């Protein structure tokens, strides 16, 4: 496509922007008329197998959570920072830091400036987001890898709480280690703009960048919105009709224009689809979930070729070869996968990052509102 500069990273071998949904017409995706269309059984979320953390479901409907509403009663006293390192005493105690020492581990970096968990957020930034998060599961930790996502949506295009809960599970199950001893990435979703007017997007990269920028985090340098990834659930991309979503950036434009678009109407035309023998169709909700997880994966510098040796692991949520029902099931549910190294998902029935993909995740250099470093020129989309 004209004007598109291709990223030539080790992670990306695709010559074209990816389609998050099958490239083939619906009729080639299987036999849509043969399936029951029944909703799948809600997966058991109380699992603790394979050492994976049990994820607490959101306690509220995320669509009712405001981004910048402070908690009624801050659980720690934010005013008392005895050693002046940018972290309140009680927050330091909570995470095993020394409230009487600016530099608890003596490495020359003050506690507030440390990024012990390597997620690209300093402890001071984590404290800021922690203090502003209205519910417990949104609070980041200086001892655990965190990913902050701002979510906007158009009228009627909001993801369900179940979609977000599944996405949270997918990131929590990523095979990465943390100083707190619990594996995974904590995905924290903050809803910002709700019920934006419906607007379709096209193949015009500039249009999509401008749209994202127009609805970017209001408080990029503020205490709550530090280094967020920006995601908008929109209606359709009327040109890339087989695409479920894309990740866009352009170094020639402001970083606030970088982000993810999920095309809910495009997905609605494809899902539910693909009932293999003994299975239910892959639901729209599942399609939205895997697309959301996949696109946010791109913002963490993941390409599609994330298997060892550069090939595509079909069980990995980053896979994109979805022209057959079998492959769509593998990516969306991990169907048939028994190997934890490949991100086995049989029990949960949800999208997962393979071990190889998890090893390539780059939280420190994500495509967020503070960086568009993927771009090599006039623009980038994936
Ligand atoms: Ca302190
Ligand atoms: Ca300290
Ligand atoms: Ca950190
Ligand atoms: Ca953290
Ligand atoms: Zn992709």
Biggest β-sheet: strands ordered side by side in the sheet: 2-1-3-5-4-6
- Give helix and strand order, one letter per element, not per position: HHEHEHEEEHHHHE
Major sheet size, sense and barrel closure: 6 strands, mixed
Structural class estimated from helices and strands: alpha/beta
Bound chemical compounds:
calcium ion, zinc ion
Query: Mean of the pLDDT scores?
Result: 77
Question: Cα distance, first to last residue?
Answer: 12 Å
Q: Quaternary arrangement of the chains shown?
A: single chain
Rg result: 20 Å
Task: Describe what this molecule looks like in 3D.
It contains 8 helices and 6 strands. It has 382 residues and is an alpha/beta fold. The protein has 2 domains: 294 residues, no CATH class; 50 residues, no CATH class. A 6-stranded mixed β-sheet has the order 2-1-3-5-4-6, with helices on both faces. α3 links the parallel β1 and β2. α3 crosses α6. The radius of gyration is 20 Å and the shape is globular. The protein binds calcium ion (CA) (4 copies) and zinc ion (ZN). One calcium ion (CA) binds next to loops.
Please provide a brief summary of the model.
The protein has 382 residues and is an alpha/beta fold. It has helices spanning 89-94, 123-132, 161-172, 205-214, 264-270, 284-299, 325-333, 355-360, and strands at 146-153, 186-191, 229-234, 245-249, 259-263, 380-381.
Topology at a glance:
Blueprint: H1 89-94, H2 123-132, E1 146-153, H3 161-172, E2 186-191, H4 205-214, E3 229-234, E4 245-249, E5 259-263, H5 264-270, H6 284-299, H7 325-333, H8 355-360, E6 380-381
Parallel strand pairs: 1-2, 1-3, 3-5
Antiparallel strand pairs: 4-5, 4-6
Helix pairs in contact: 3-6
Bound molecules: calcium ion (CA) (4 copies) and zinc ion.
């Amino acid at each position: 496509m004209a004007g598109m500069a291709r990223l030539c990273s080790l992670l990306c071998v695709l010559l074209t922007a990816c389609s998050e949904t099958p490239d083939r017409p619906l009729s080639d995706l299987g036999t849509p008329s043969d399936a029951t269309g029944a909703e799948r059984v809600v997966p058991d979320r109380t699992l603790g197998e394979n050492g994976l953390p049990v994820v607490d479901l959101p306690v509220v409907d995320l669509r009712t959570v405001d981004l910048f509403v402070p908690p009624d009663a801050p659980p720690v006293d934010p005013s008392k920072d005895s050693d002046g390192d940018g972290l309140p005493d009680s927050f330091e105690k909570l995470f095993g830091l020394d409230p009487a020492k600016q530099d608890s581990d003596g490495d020359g970096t003050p506690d507030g400036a440390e990024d012990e968990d390597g997620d690209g957020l300093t402890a001071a930034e984590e404290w800021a987001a922690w203090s502003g998060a209205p519910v417990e599961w949104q609070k980041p930790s200086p001892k655990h890898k965190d990913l902050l996502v701002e979510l906007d949506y158009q009228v009627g295009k909001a993801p369900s709480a179940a979609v977000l809960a599944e996405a949270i599970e997918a990131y929590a199950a990523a095979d990465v280690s943390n100083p707190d001893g619990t594996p995974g990435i904590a995905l924290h979703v903050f809803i910002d703009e709700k019920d934006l007017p419906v607007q379709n997007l096209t193949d015009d990269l500039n249009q999509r960048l401008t749209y994202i920028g127009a609805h970017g985090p209001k408080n990029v340098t503020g205490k709550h919105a530090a280094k967020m990834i920006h995601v908008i659930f929109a209606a359709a991309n009327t040109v890339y009709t087989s695409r479920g979503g894309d990740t866009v950036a352009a170094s020639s434009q402001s970083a606030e224009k970088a982000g993810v678009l999920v095309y809910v109407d495009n997905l609605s035309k494809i899902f539910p689809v693909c009932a293999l023998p003994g299975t239910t169709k892959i639901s729209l909700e599942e399609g939205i979930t895997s697309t959301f997880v996949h696109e946010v994966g791109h913002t963490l510098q993941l390409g599609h070729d994330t298997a060892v040796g550069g090939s595509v692991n079909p069980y990995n949520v980053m896979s994109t070869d979805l022209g057959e029902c079998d492959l769509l099931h593998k990516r969306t549910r991990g169907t048939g996968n028994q190997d934890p190294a490949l991100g086995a998902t049989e029990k949960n029935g949800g999208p997962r990052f393979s071990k190889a993909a998890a090893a390539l995740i780059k939280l420190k250099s994500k495509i967020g509102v503070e960086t568009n470093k993927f771009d090599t020129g006039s623009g980038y989309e994936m």
